[in-house]
UniProtKB/TrEMBL annotation:
<keyword id="KW-0732">Signal</keyword>
<comment type="function">
    <text>Probable carboxypeptidase.</text>
</comment>
<keyword id="KW-0812">Transmembrane</keyword>
<keyword id="KW-0964">Secreted</keyword>
<dbReference type="GO" id="GO:0004185">
    <property type="term" value="F:serine-type carboxypeptidase activity"/>
</dbReference>
<dbReference type="GO" id="GO:0006508">
    <property type="term" value="P:proteolysis"/>
</dbReference>
<dbReference type="InterPro" id="IPR029058">
    <property type="entry name" value="AB_hydrolase_fold"/>
</dbReference>
<keyword id="KW-0378">Hydrolase</keyword>
<feature type="transmembrane region" description="Helical">
    <location>
        <begin position="466"/>
        <end position="487"/>
    </location>
</feature>
<dbReference type="InterPro" id="IPR001563">
    <property type="entry name" value="Peptidase_S10"/>
</dbReference>
<keyword id="KW-0121">Carboxypeptidase</keyword>
<feature type="signal peptide">
    <location>
        <begin position="1"/>
        <end position="25"/>
    </location>
</feature>
<protein>
    <recommendedName>
        <fullName>Carboxypeptidase</fullName>
        <ecNumber>3.4.16.-</ecNumber>
    </recommendedName>
</protein>
<keyword id="KW-0325">Glycoprotein</keyword>
<dbReference type="InterPro" id="IPR018202">
    <property type="entry name" value="Ser_caboxypep_ser_AS"/>
</dbReference>
<keyword id="KW-1015">Disulfide bond</keyword>
<dbReference type="GO" id="GO:0005576">
    <property type="term" value="C:extracellular region"/>
</dbReference>
Amino acid sequence: MASSTLFHILSSLFIFCLASSFSYAAYPNNNQVSLTSTAYLPKLQAEKLIRGLNLFPKSSVNTAAAGDHASVSAPKLVEKQLSLNPLGDPGPSVQEFGHHAGYYTLPHSQSARMFYFFFESRNNKSDPVVIWLTGGPGCSSELALFYENGPFHIANNLSLVWNDYGWDKASNLLFVDQPTGTGFSYTSDKDDIRHDEEGVSNDLYDFLQAFFAEHPQYAKNDFYITGESYAGHYIPAFASRVHKGNKEKQGIHINLKGFAIGNGLTDPAIQYKEYTEYALNMRLIKQSDYESINKLIPTCEHAIKTCESDGGDACSSSYAVCNSIFNKILGIAGDVNYYDIRKKCEGDLCYDFSNMERFLNEKSVREALGVGDIDFVSCSSTVYEAMLMDWMRNFEVGIPTLLEDGIRVLIYAGEYDLICNWLGNSKWVHAMEWSGQKDFGAAATVPFKVDGAETGQIKSHGPLTFLKVSFCLFLEFMMLVIWFPWISLKLRYKCSRAGCKGNLP
């Protein structure tokens, strides 16, 4: 087995998912939620959760003085070929692969620049173009690039090694640092920090238009949107924006075929209600705890409705009220790893991503990427806080239209993930109203097998698929194999946090 298979990809990391996990101590033991405690303040929570991953970005958001970066006066999209040199043999020589990094000047902003990576397929340039969106909100795409499904991983000595299961083996792969202020994306104007999915989606759509104008040879390829966690908000909104642009014949036609959400936050009103049910089923809490915590659910439901109707402070309040459900569960469960409840976190750390920050702060790497002195903000607490108005909103509402028009949708989640649990995701998928709802509900749930071994359960009707990942035991987990017809090479995750032993390098 190749050495790179020692790297176990976290298939559905992030960070909606980290959102409330460090904050349960901020709440009193009764059923009242304190909105004035400084321990509750979302930005402080975000900073604590970032440190909990052994990440220490110098800044809370990526800003720069106007004119500080070379791309300020350059064309809208500035791109350079990467000269990174991973160890090992990926097959053809690295010179045959087009690895690029660049900045795009966002047109509907004061001075925002969006940073991205583009990796041409190791197989065939006619393979689909796939964009990956990491959650947070406010965590960089480099987390997925180097620890999940990118072309290579970072070894402990900070060298790069090829990922035998990178998605670039069967797709032309885009990673984007978004929203503005995340990763290497930056601005010199605080008004460019986004607060809702409309701003996020328009920026991504503008980026795609510029990308395909720069690379017209890929515009005809099938296009898929993928991501995890808070991308359960990003992805449906972005897919709807692309679909609208196509229908209205805006700019370049983008050949959208489908999207996939891994362990996502999409419909909070349904998903938050399922925390107690999941926790009881998995024996994290007792029946008496279940009954006590469930008393918070009506207040959470009312808060979400108020957020949807009133917006503003009502959305901040709904965030606090509803997250108290998870916090109380975590207070009882103790130091359980909320991404894999079969494990305990060692100290404050469930995972350690510090090698990424060390690698990206090396002078030679910065020169290769063309980022100059721009800070790298692995996760932005400022972006996290800015998106609170968006948190409790339901983004399932845009999916039925996409399904009716034949856009393929995959929702997948791991059995042992608490904070973005499969039960909540399954419930909103089944509750979604569309023409195929009844037939989807009646469809059989069948085993999902990898190399003959059952690794989960899958259910499909028409363009909609739900996959519960339950077991893989160091088998290569072939995520999306039967969903994306273009994956003849069987895109593989080594193992997901959903059910494998040992999730980290």
